[in-house]
Design a protein that fits this description.
Layout: H1 6-24, H2 27-49, H3 51-75, H4 77-96
């Protein structure tokens, strides 16, 4: 079975986590989606780039989630989520492109 690239997994986790939380009105359920995708992405980052890359990208993933909240107050919820998801996907791509 082909792997889904980790940048796509990370971006989907951020977008999907927000979408699930919003549409189900259950924030913890969105958190489960966010955490599950983050775990899958982190495992791939570890395999491809090692512990330093995985740690850095995991920190960036958490920062993207946290940063989307104040950003949403300025530009709206969906634009904020898509912005941080795109930034996260870009960071994951740059950090893993040579190794993977």
């Amino acid at each position: 079975m082909p792997r889904i690239p980790s940048p796509a997994v990370a971006a989907a986790g951020l977008v999907g986590g927000y979408a699930v939380a919003r549409w189900t009105k259950k924030r913890p359920l969105g958190g489960v989606v966010l955490a599950a995708a983050g775990g899958v992405a982190a495992r791939e980052w570890q395999q491809v780039g090692g512990a330093k890359v995985a740690g850095g990208l995991t920190a960036a993933y958490v920062a993207a989630f946290a940063g989307s909240h104040p950003l949403a107050k300025k530009i709206g919820a969906w634009p904020a989520v898509f912005s941080v998801a795109g930034a996260m996907a870009g960071a994951a791509y740059v950090a893993t492109r040579k190794a993977g």
